[in-house]
Amino acid sequence: MMFGFPILIFDVETMTDIKAGSQLYQLDLADESSLQALAKLRRQEAGTDFAKLPLHQVVCISGLWIDEGKFQLFSWTQHEYSEKEILQKFTGIFEKKQPILVSWNGTQFDLPVIMYRCLYHGITAATLFEQGEWDQQKRYNNYQNRYLPRHTDLMDVLSGFNQKSFQKLDEIVRILGYPGKQGISGNDVAEFVQQAQWAALGCYCESDVLNTWLVYLRWLLLRGFVDQQQHQYWIQRTIGYLQQHAQHAAFLQQWQKSCLGTAFTANDFLQNP
After folding, report:
1. pTM here?
2. Could you tell me which residue, 57 or 187, shows the higher pLDDT?
C-alpha cells in the first residue's frame, strides 16, 4: 500500500561553526574561547545563544525514505562524511528524484541552513532551490514556497502559517500519544560530536524524523489523503521496521507506553506485541 510518489521526511542537526564565526567577527582565539565569545556576542545581539543561521554547521542529516516498496531510515554524520559531502548527498537526492519533502520547522530552519551552507561550500543544488525562474513548471511546484505541498512543513501548516500559533514537535507528539524526544534535545548535539558519539547522534536525529513521520501520518488522515485502514497499515509497518533495528528499541519501548495515553493510539501495538 504505497502513496504513488516518493516521500522524504528529514531532519538536520547542527552546531556552531567556530571557523566561520571567527571570520565573521574577526576573532583570533582558541576554539573554546572563540565559542564562548560567539555565544556572548550573540546574546548581546539577540538575547539568545542560538547562532545566526549561516553559522550552523551541519553535523547530521537523517531521513525516512518511502518509495516503491522501500521504507528506510538513514543518517549521514560527520563521522563518515565532511559537511560538504553530507550536503551534496542530500541535495543530490533531488536531482535524481523529486520527493514530497516533509519536515518540522524546515521552512524557517533546516532548508535555510542547508542553503547557507551550500553557499559556503560552493555547492550547486538547482532542483531543491528552483522557484520557477528557469523552469516554469516549478513556479507552482517547488520546495521553497511555504504554501505549496512539495515541501510540507508540519509546524507551518498545523499553525495555519501563523507564527504566533507555532508549537514544539515534542509537545505535539506527546499529546498525540507518540514517544517524543526522550530527554534529549538539540542542545546535546555539540556534546555528542565532541565525544564522538556518532551513533547516538544519528539515533537522536532519526527519532525526530520518526516523530515527524507519525504526525505526518495523522495529518494525512486529517486531510483525508489516507483512510483509517491505510493509516493503521503504516503504523504497523513502522513498528515492524523498528522492531528489526535494535538502535530504536528505546523509541519503541516509549511508544508502547505513550500510545496508551490516547484512545486513538491505544491499539497501536496490539498487532505487534
Report:
1. 0.95
2. 57
